[in-house]
Design goal:
- With about 230 residues, the protein is of the alpha/beta class.
- The protein is about 30% helix and about 20% strand.
- The protein is built from nine helices and 13 strands.
- Helix 6 packs across helix 7.
Length: about 230
């Protein structure tokens, strides 16, 4: 079932995933759902651990990638770093587009916090990419200092203190101010309360948004996915 591929409107080309609260999980699920549709390459412009359940390629070897795609639907590509993570591949993204039908890029880091504000040098988005911003609903109604990566910046944009709570309206103010994404995916929508908060945030956004629970989808407990807004 391709609930996320269809719901998010994933098309061939580069899709960059930014934000917080489920980027890696989203990319893994998208790769799984995209298998029947073509060759899928998972990579990064920041730092990631190797993707699970697919071969890892660490050499900028076009022939090797082509050879692996003869037997595999999904590959993970990156440059090895000293901490066991992968960095940006040495092959340009223009070349990757000629090797794969779908290039999924984790283009952001958030230190495993549910919310985030971005400094001027981030995220690192490949040219021509469609950008999906993930936001973790678990961060709502908690103090910004505890749930947001770069809390001082988040609070400054939202016009409040880091000790104030991260409300839907404040997150919407940050997203609108930054203007980085084409679509917002609210994750961690396991409860009705979380879904109501997502809808409250969506009402203040000028771009399309939707809500889901990647945890429930991956555990086969629920295939909940709801489009919230087409934007203003």
């Amino acid at each position: 079932m391709s609930i996320l591929v269809e719901g998010l409107g994933i098309r061939p080309g580069i899709t960059a995933i930014i934000g917080s609260g489920g980027k890696t999980r989203l990319i893994g699920q998208l790769a799984l759902e995209l298998k029947p549709y073509g060759r899928v390459l998972v990579t990064t412009t920041t730092k990631i651990f190797p993707a699970r359940g697919m071969p890892l390629i660490t050499l900028p070897d076009v022939r090797l990638i082509q050879s692996c795609f003869e037997t595999e639907h999904c590959l993970c590509l990156g440059t090895p770093l000293t901490d066991g993570k992968l960095g940006t591949p040495k092959l340009p993204f223009e070349r990757l587009l000629k090797l794969a039908d779908y290039v999924l890029v984790e283009a952001d880091g958030a230190r495993q916090l549910p919310l985030k504000a971005h400094e001027s040098w981030e995220p690192v988005i490949p040219q021509g990419a469609r950008v999906i911003l993930v936001a973790g609903l678990a961060g709502f109604y908690q103090e910004i200092q505890h749930v947001a990566h770069r809390p001082e910046l988040f609070a400054r944009i939202a016009g409040c203190s880091i000790m104030d709570k991260a409300t839907p309206e404040r997150l919407a103010a940050v997203i609108e101010h930054e203007g980085l994404a084409d679509l917002v995916l609210f994750n961690q929508g396991e409860s009705q309360g979380a879904r109501r908060a997502a809808k409250a945030c969506a009402r203040n956004l000028s771009i399309p948004s939707c809500v889901t629970s990647l945890y429930l989808i991956q555990s086969d407990a629920d295939c909940y996915f709801e489009s919230l807004s087409e934007g203003k």
